[in-house]
Amino acid sequence: MSLKTPKGTRDYGPAEAVLRQRLLDRVIQVFRRHGAATLDTPVFELRSVLTGKYGDDSKLIYDLKDQGGEPLALRYDLTVPFARYLAMNNVRQMKRYHIAKVYRRDNPQVTHGRYREFYQCDFDIAGTYDPMLPDAECIKVVAEILTELDVGDFTVKLNHRRLLDGVFEVCGVPKDKFRTVCSSVDKLDKMPWDTVRREMIEEKGLDERTVDQIGCYVSECGGIELLDRLSSDGQLNAIEGAMRALADIRLLLQYCAIFKVSERISFDLSLARGLDYYTGVIFEAVLKDTPDEVGSVAGGGRYDDLVGMFNPKRTKVPCVGVSIGIERLFSIQEKRTMVGKSTRTNETEVFVVSAHRGLHLRRLEILNQLWSEGIKAEHSYKQNPKLLAQLQHCEKRQIPLAIIVGEGELARGMVKVREVASRQEEYISLDTMIEEIRKKLTTLNVPE
Amino acid sequence: MSLKTPKGTRDYGPAEAVLRQRLLDRVIQVFRRHGAATLDTPVFELRSVLTGKYGDDSKLIYDLKDQGGEPLALRYDLTVPFARYLAMNNVRQMKRYHIAKVYRRDNPQVTHGRYREFYQCDFDIAGTYDPMLPDAECIKVVAEILTELDVGDFTVKLNHRRLLDGVFEVCGVPKDKFRTVCSSVDKLDKMPWDTVRREMIEEKGLDERTVDQIGCYVSECGGIELLDRLSSDGQLNAIEGAMRALADIRLLLQYCAIFKVSERISFDLSLARGLDYYTGVIFEAVLKDTPDEVGSVAGGGRYDDLVGMFNPKRTKVPCVGVSIGIERLFSIQEKRTMVGKSTRTNETEVFVVSAHRGLHLRRLEILNQLWSEGIKAEHSYKQNPKLLAQLQHCEKRQIPLAIIVGEGELARGMVKVREVASRQEEYISLDTMIEEIRKKLTTLNVPE
């Protein structure tokens, strides 16, 4: 029998789990600062819920075996379950975050922090609102998280699906090929233009002239000046959707300026995003000081039609959201902080030590007293452990205090308390033990 | 397309998610008080890891579809993944908690808080220690959690697999039928003796005399007096394993008395526990004041051989642990507290309000200032929302403060602050806005 976790998955041992929780807590703090509530959905959905939402990526969905009953599949992201929840409960307005694992049968490079099972941290705003106000807040949320996690300099690439559609139309792509050409453009962050060009011509059947014209557009990247240039592009001007998209982006850039994140933004026509469901603004955050292979660490966009797909009446609930790829951020921090023996994995405040043989029942009494007062306490699970071994255990585990129980002291109603780091010891009365311990924990500044 | 969650699963909406998180936080607090570190493992395991661990219940395991690659299955509990982790990493000693969802293709009664996807909260102690010291702490942990969650009176039933084996031997059950007879005994909490008796005779092929003798033993339930009686039982006396089991239970009861949980304990020979892997003490907590259908809310026991099953050298790592059925506890609390509109699901401290048209850019500036100071703030995503609608939103969402932005006040460098509950308003200077808001939040006692 092979002793391993499934391909593309990993365990998080205590030190990694502690570090990851700290990372997640900071992400949650940002989500909550922006007023989001949380939601939890099942790890699997009816297969039909996931069907037709992910384009080419559908082949990466994990199906469950047919063991009788409903066809099921593991969730591929948290966005589709969110949309299903909104439609099912007829919710028209919601700001929610969801932190949970998603599943993709990819061939990920685990060395670069990419897995088949990985956490996503999603923040989404659903509701019929005025243009770009929720969209700007999503970008602000990404910027706050990446700034606070201190992962170095980053750029948020920005584009618009309707603008891309306009570009495709101008270049002469037939309408029914918009989505598939969009998938090709999406590969530009991983492949050179020549490869993508060949794919468009050979696999997708486009004209060379069309493809080269697309190539001109998608190499554009900039800010307001690019926006101005595109707004006065004679051909794009004729396409209403593209003009509205440019107006959206102009407004978004204005809001981003007020939110003091302009210098992070890059309006980038090569950004396409893989998934089918986007309908408006799309964005993706990439780290600048990190090797390319880390790729994007956050991405999202507007998907105004997804909820309607679940709704028998097709009631539209416009949504915009962002997903933080916490696993890659964790992988960067893990390498940086050298996860290891120095990370404290327990919160024990007091270790109850036997000074000599025959004291385990007294130890249990003292432990019980500490627990009932809410003090975090442990002891050795040996009846007669060696004194030195117990003290070494305290040092190794960075437990701040030891209560040392000895026959002589007990006869006088006392125990010895040792500050583990300084090795200072003093006698305290059993009667005032709890208060004394509390005082010492405060002095030693042990977080509760 | 059917718009539902898969059979036996549920969403947790914001109010339920908040309540469940509170419940989990209290459970975690107890686990940490006892010094446990946490661990996270993948939601699926290699199929072979789960094979041969669950006896009859194996048929309830969710398999993943064969899509090429390794045969995988969703975890059935958190114990087997823990044992796999210990063996794989050659860990000989560990106290860990793990809170995560597990999956069982059962036909659960969702009205009673039983699901196919449900959270387990596990606490386990692995290591070679002196008898019953870790076991007693597991029982203490269960008692603390059930006491602190305030779910009413409860009993912890206690038994020992080696004692049951002794009973079976005394009654004349062939050794190779011990486990299957054990499964029959396990059904006694759901079926009357007559039905179980018939199953043993007709399906398991035991003598009537054997079965009736088993019936006598498994109807026994008590405390020290029962222990004394069994210890002097002439037939059991001849079986070394049974005698050692009785000595274990005697020691455990002594430790439980020191931990002040004796009055909760019932030594109950009908307790068998379904799973194959237990090798020693077993226990199960049941609520007294709740309808029977809730069943057990916690269960566990000693499994000394499980880690060795994963280990090529069969290195033994003795373990004992407990699993809290948080979903059932949640279901009880949910009914009791009437989850609903009164549960606050966001933590927003300040809502920034436009007093009239044309102020959305100023609102964004103020919001950005609040966020950058770590204050939890929101606004309407409409450019020109109605004043009344904004104030009503604050009241409905229980947001404590509103900053009301108006042209006249802004010209004087001021904004109005409203305490939402009391509707008291006052003007504050934009220069000191942050301090004033902080002061008010402290006065209103808004938790950070």
TrEMBL record, chains A, B:
The keyword Protein biosynthesis applies. GO terms for molecular function: ATP binding; histidine-tRNA ligase activity; RNA binding. Residues 1-329 form the Aminoacyl-transfer RNA synthetases class-II family profile domain. PROSITE patterns: AA_TRNA_LIGASE_II. It catalyses: tRNA(His) + L-histidine + ATP = L-histidyl-tRNA(His) + AMP + diphosphate + H(+). Belongs to the class-II aminoacyl-tRNA synthetase family. This is histidine--tRNA ligase. It comes from Anopheles sinensis.
